[in-house]
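Deliverable D4.2, example record:
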Amino acid sequence: MSTPILRRLARAYSNGLIDRKQYIRERRQLIDGIVNGNVEVVPYLSPPATPNPDLERTFSDGDNSLDLPGLINKDPQPPPKSKLPLIIAGILILMAVTILLWLVMAPQSEPTDPARTGDGKTGFRIVREID
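Output generated by the structure prediction step:
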């Protein structure tokens, strides 16, 4: 069985030229022919690969004629440090300054005398006057 026979059968079924029963019957005949040895099975041979002239050169440079100044870095730079700790420290300092300013600028209230009531009188009741 060659690949074109099977492809033509599958294409005919997918295009609706033959119905499912006919497709199954034809496929069964092909399989029976392969098993009985009546149909020759020809393996698919892919065409030989043609070399691509752009891909023939590899990165290995046996004669050291390649100059790659951009790829070879003599003094590698350290990776950049994260700015996250600096941002967090700045936010904490800003919060601390805001709280201190709020405490300093808040109006100072006079301490309350626990002996005084809300009407300005003392909390003690005079029972009798001393002569």
